[in-house]
Each structure stands twice: as C-alpha cells, then as structure tokens.
Give the backbone structure.
Amino acid sequence: MSPVAADIEELKRMTGERAALLLKLKALKPELTARLKLSDLRAFDPVAIGMAGPDSIGVLVAYAETPSLFDISALQNELESSLDAKVHLAVDGMIEPAWESRIRRAAMDI
C-alpha cells in the first residue's frame, strides 16, 4: 500500500474528534513550520504509543536547527492551546528508541 493510501486509511479510522484536530493542525502547519524553522511536522494516532483518547493527538516534528528545551516546551504549550487538546509531542532525534519505530510507522503527513 502506498504511503498516501495508508494515510487515507488511517484518516478513515479516526474518530470525528481526532479528524477535527488534524484539520486544525493542518491549518497551523504553514505558519508553525516557517516561524519555528521546522523541517517536518506530521501527525500520529497516540494509540500507537499507548496513549489513547479521542481528545488527543500525536505530533512528530523535526527542526531544521537544534531546538532548546524551552523551544520544545513552548511548541507543546502552543499546540495544546491552539488545538484545545492534549498533544503528545515527539521531536525527531529525541524520541526514546523503544517508541521511535511505532511513532514513525504511525506518523502521517498532513
């Protein structure tokens, strides 16, 4: 199955609440990517890491430049405030190895 087809299938499985969060995140992506110098921003279903909940979303980001912990914390807070939901933030290069393959398999471009 192609990556695009897999993303479409994943979207079909998501609840209405999570699909709405994806749409909000997609709307935020261009501004966040430019302002925070992100080289990638993807979404994943938090069930992939054992964090279920219809009012939460997983976000995988990659920075073009190494972020500070303050930068990461600020992004987490901004996403949760903007989406009005719990955000499980994963930063490329800082993901615990036990979770990395699960997150990468579940991550989809938005």
Remarks:
- The radius of gyration is 13 Å.
- Strands lie at 38-44, 56-63, 86-91, 108-109.
- Residues 16-36 form the longest helix (21 residues).
- The mean pLDDT is 85.
